[in-house]
Design goal:
Order of helices and strands: HHEEEHEEEEHEEEH
Strand content: 15-25%
Radius of gyration: 18 Å
Strand order of the largest sheet: 4-5-6-7-8
Distance between the termini: 48 Å
Helix content: 25-40%
Structural class: alpha+beta
Length: about 190
Amino acid sequence: MASHPGTLAEALTAITADYLAQCEAEQRFDWRYYMVKYPAMHENGSSTYYDSEHLAMGYSLCMLKAGGRALNGYYRDPYLQAITRELDEPDVVEDKPFSGPAEQPRRLLLARSGAGVRCVAQGFELSPPSTNAHTEAFATACAELGADADLLVAVPQDLVGDRPIDTADRIQLGAELVRRLVDAGL
């Protein structure tokens, strides 16, 4: 920090910009990148997270309310929240907090159809609409999005050590995924 000219705020802004530029140049997007890049991932002063899949931070997080220390109330999925904030029309999804066990799947539900998007380590897991009226549109959209038999739309990743690291920005991919599902009538 001492080597940066100007104010503390200017130094922090420069360090942040350098970090993001390095990650983008290397195409290495781990949880740290997303926390720095997207303010929604620490919205309302939250700084307490729980990873329901690993003992270390990853792509399946619960974000507790600011000051929260226990997962016994309402919480957010910071990845889904960041995707919602990236949408031009955020009312196309149900933006609600979650409750219950962290291991319980958290889905961003589309307002029109009830189809869902869940952030998992490998990418995004889709869930079918809540009514049969959208079944055909959902099947067509899944095929166009390249979803596999388990309804997974993979995020490109490389293995670094023993951990998968995204090589494309999953928040931007997730927002585009939601837009395409909405455009498909879901």
